[in-house]
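As a warm-up, study this chain.
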Amino acid sequence: MKILANINRTIRKKTTAEGNLDKLSENRLLRVAEEGDQFIYTMLKSSEHGLSPSEVADRKKKFGFNEIAHEKAAAWYIQLFQAFLNPFIGVLIVLAVVSFIIDVMIAAPDERSYKTVIVVGVMVMLSSLLRFWQEYSSNRAAESLKSMVKTTATVLRQGKEKAEINIKDLVPGDIVFLSAGDMIPADCRLMQSKDLFVSQSMLTGESLPLEKRAAQSGKRKKTSPLELDNICFMGTNVVSGTGMAIVVNTGNATYFGAIGKAITGKRAETSFDKGINKVSWLLIRFMMVMVPLVFLVNGLTKGDWFEALLFGISVAVGLTPEMLPMIVTANLAKGAKNMSKRKVIVKRLNAIQNIGAMDVLCTDKTGTLTMDKIVLERHLNVFGDEDDEVMKWAYLNSFHQTGLKNLLDVAVLEHAEIHSCINADEHFIKIDEIPFDFQRRRMSVVLEEKNGKHLLICKGAVEEMLEHCSHAFDPGEDKQLHIENDKIVPMDDAMRKIVLDTSRKLNEEGLRVLLVAIKEDDKRPLTYSVSDETNMVLTGFIGFLDPAKPSAKPAIEGLQKLGVNIKVLTGDNEIVTKKICRDVGIPVNHILLGREIELLNDEQLTEKLDETNIMAKLSPMQKSRIVKLLQTKGHTVGFMGDGINDAAALRDADVGISVDTAVDIAKESADIILLEKDLMVLRKGVIYGRRTFGNIIKYIKMTASSNFGNMFSMLGASAFLPFLPMLPIHLLVQNLLYDISQTSIPWDSMDEDFIEKPQKWDASGISRFMLFIGPISSIFDYATFAVMWFVFKANMPGHQSLFQSGWFIEGLLSQTLIVHMIRTRKIPFIQSWAATPVVALTSLIMLIGIGIPFSPIASALKLQPLPLSYFPWLIGILAGYCVLTQLVKTWFIKRFNQWL
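Now compare it with the structure written out below.
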């Protein structure tokens, strides 16, 4: 993606796939921002009285409904079909079809067998239905979380009074009225405004509301529409004040709609998708080599090519870990269930493994690291010392003002304990008010004290307040406001420098700073005006901040210990972001800003990403670009956010994490939704993810190496034995019993050292594992062949049942024992025990396997009872197998520094 020189040019890029405004929509916004009212009405073919019904109808035909493109969960039958789309399930279905043709369609009536078809069919159905049900349930739960946003707007149209209509019925040129609590229904140009503050945090990440006013912006070079004071954007919220606006862009032509278009369509492959596909094709390649080899060896040595074909198909079934989709899905579903107990909805099962593989977590700041709530953090006197007296002045000002209270006033008034302490409504009676305006950037209340004097209390922006303060004072005692006793200091250059230095330091700490000043007069007529806001006495500073969540620091420390690097990607400014990062323990080494990122090509930016943990003032597409570049470096990337500006990055990440209070578009793009804003849940999620992946990889390595060893044994036996070492039915039953023993794996635990590092799919590691560990079982299989051939004289076709029974038991027991040998790097049964369900089920399967040749079904399976003298040989062979496997395991770990 080519990054141009500034945000404006990025947004202008006419590429809907990038989620930016198209040029026409952006130019309309920039043009109406620059021009006066009459020009705007003419341009949009509207008037201050609104549109006529016929004009509305015509524009609906031209522009469509005021709705944005967004992803919804697919219909249940599509989700069901998608649950079957998996490379390995495809292999199983092909095997089932081939088996059906050979075992049923072309077999003699008395030799027809449905066993393979049934077993493989059951595995496919169980795996696919389990995946479908888990994802379908999670999607339903996520749909029910859709926030109940206000979906109406107050509109004026010709010949009608102002009326509430559904926002989807708005068209360009409509006149809309805004007030506190309203959602902006489209991209609009303000025509009138009074004390209007709008929160754009969902688009930009800035926590504080922005002042919006109807004045023309004038000609400005290279301006992003988001920076325009007279433009309001769809999906943002009115915090306070009122306004009248004209609709400029609707639906997908809005800024919100452009992002919506960028995140619909097919998702990119995640780390899980790529990994499972690589492993699936690795196993398929092994099968494509082994099956023809076994077929040729059997055909050439036995001369019965049809029997050789049947045996080749049995080998294909034996080599196929047919439980793989089932085990993967069961493990993921178990992880999802565990996380649901922690109030986490897992919308896409694959996200469980992805969160375990995650080694980089990119997070937005507002609402994720911070509380998304403005609090009064500091109250200092002019010398920069904490002083409760300053808080009392600020409280009196906020309490007595009658205008719409903004978030800063709300933060001050949360200190209700001051009210009773100073009797705010008894000792101080409000008699006048000078309201806030954007030119003065301050507001005042006038109170009558108990002694009859008038007290003006003013608060506002630092520069504007300093111009009108002639003195400053230390407020003195805390319990009462004894103005006449306080020491007053002239506001000379030295004092002014102290004030500005303190203000700058507070700004550097990420605080929004206001000054509070007072002025006392004798009783006089109530003709107070702006001209009275002079010669005031400065009392001190009040500083506001959206503070870090209490859970953020321990959660981030926990994630860092698990090998997850945290990067903050925010639309907010770098000063506030730096302060929050320090508070939560994220290293502040280097900061990249959006405007700097735009000047870098992909190669340059990729180089800087490793050393940079904070990226601020980012556009939505820059966040998405950073996520993609981190992925190209081999990282598995998680992204956590809750705003419209996070939606594209949430979708492109390997695992997108959002919260239930997020905007709908963010929840639709996320893979995981936290029902509580507790970041500690993320750490738990990483651990669950790694445990889940560990159990999946256990099954793959156990089964692949065991099956490979079996086929290796089968290949050798086929070459020199005058009969089949094991019948197709034996292979099938053995596989079925072994697979049943594997169903307990999702309940198994993982060793601590495995949990401590991010875990990823490694197809080369699996093939290496198969080649080194698989043939160990073949050594002891050949030992079993020798025992059966030489000791028990099962060396003629008439004795093949005894031979096959001996290998059936040894093969099943060695396969089942390998579960315990492979599940840990440690020595099994001494340093590490499997979970109780695993021990119980594997023990039960071993007993069933030993019992089958002695059971009534033995003759149906063409098996026979074994002499008791066989079992000492069996114990010796299995003990040797365990010892050799442990020795090879120790060597393998030293040689390759890897096990699971």
